[in-house]
Amino acid sequence: MTCAAVAAALPALAADVTFVMRNEHPNAVEVELYSQDRDYVWPGNNQVFYLDDGETKQIPLSCNEGESICYGAWVSGDRGTYWGTGPDNAETCSDCCYVCTGGETEEINLVE
Fold first, then answer.
1. What superkingdom does the record give (predicted)?
2. What is residue 90's three-state secondary structure?
3. What is the mean pLDDT of residues 79-84?
4. Is 82 helix (H, G, I), strand (E, B) or coil?
5. Which helix (H) or strand (E) holds 3?
6. Domains and CATH numbers, the chain
7. Which residue has the higher pLDDT, 97 or 11?
8. Greatest CA separation found in the chain?
9. Strand 68-75 relative to strand 29-35, pairing
10. Which of 13, 40, 61, 111 could form a disulfide with 24 if both were Cys (CB 3.0 to 4.6 A apart)?
């Protein structure tokens, strides 16, 4: 077996990252976090993280070391008003992705 085959057989190293999200929009916001390296969504199972207006929430994730994770957020009941990759990871963004290396993100402000 080559070194590459051995490395491929090893499980991915786990890490944790905490997304710090603040809702500065006057309406409630729903958030999902999307892996860009595998088919995985947090919280998953058709659930969302829910932030009331003015609420700050820390969202801890267990992820694979080095994995790229992007946030998608939208006004509850209005999937057309969104931040990041939006609902279902459908949009592109320039500054809404973070690498899973431990620690926490800066405060991500969702503003009107």
1. Bacteria
2. coil
3. 97
4. strand
5. helix 3-9
6. 15-111 (2.60.40)
7. 97
8. 58
9. antiparallel
10. 111
Q: Is the per-residue pLDDT at 42 higher than 60? A: yes
Evaluate whether 87 touches 34 at the Cβ level (below 8 Å): no
70: nearest Cα among 82, 54, 56: 82
- Say yes or no to pLDDT of 47 above 70: yes
Residue appearing with tokens 């790229």: 68
Mean pLDDT for 39-60 is 97
Assess contact for 62 and 16: CB atoms under 8 A. Answer: yes
Do strands 14-24 and 104-111 pair parallel, antiparallel, or not at all (unpaired)?
parallel
Question: What residue type is 7 in one-letter code?
Answer: A
Q: Taking the model in full, what pTM does it have?
A: 0.87
Checking if the pLDDT of 35 tops 80, the result is: yes
Q: In sequence order, what DSSP letters do the residues of 8-58 get, joined into one string?
A: HHSPPPEEEEEEEEEEESSS-EEEEEEESSSS-EES-TT--EEE-TT-EEE
Distances (CA, A) of 73 to 2, 15, 46, 66, 109: 43, 23, 14, 22, 11
Token pair for residue 104? Answer: 């926490």
